[in-house]
Specification:
The chain is built from four helices and five strands.
Length: 125
């Protein structure tokens, strides 16, 4: 849902929370998103998080750290996190900044990410 208090929409599909990060987010909105995402994982008992960064043209060190932190927080709450839509320029920038985003998985698109999460969950049951 999108509203003034929560300007970043989140939806749940097959037990996975999907969030698309806009290019125009400031640092405070990214921190707010991080807090809200953790709350949503707990509230919905999500087993997966898909973070779509396809609209990001560049990523600075703060945004990169926040992506890694969101993935780590979700993992602590037993939710697998996959980042999708990473542009080549963003990947090159992260490497040039020395950011490896340890523990952050990637996929080409949300469909592949959801399928991987659902398949992994099915194999564990």
């Amino acid at each position: 849902m999108l509203d003034a208090a929560n300007p970043i929409p989140m939806m749940t599909i097959n037990g996975c929370i999907i969030v698309a990060i806009r290019d125009d987010l400031d640092d405070q909105e990214i921190v707010s998103l991080q807090d809200r995402l953790v709350e949503e994982v707990a509230k919905r008992n999500a087993h997966g998080v898909v973070i779509d960064i396809s609209s990001l043209e560049i990523v600075d060190t703060f945004a990169g750290r926040m992506l890694a932190a969101m993935a780590q927080m979700a993992r602590v709450m037993n939710a697998r996190t996959i980042v999708v839509g990473m542009r080549p320029a963003v990947a090159m920038t992260l490497v040039e900044l020395g950011m490896t985003l340890d523990g952050v998985e990637t996929a080409l698109n949300a469909d592949r990410a959801i399928n991987a999460i659902v398949s992994d969950r099915s194999n564990k049951l």
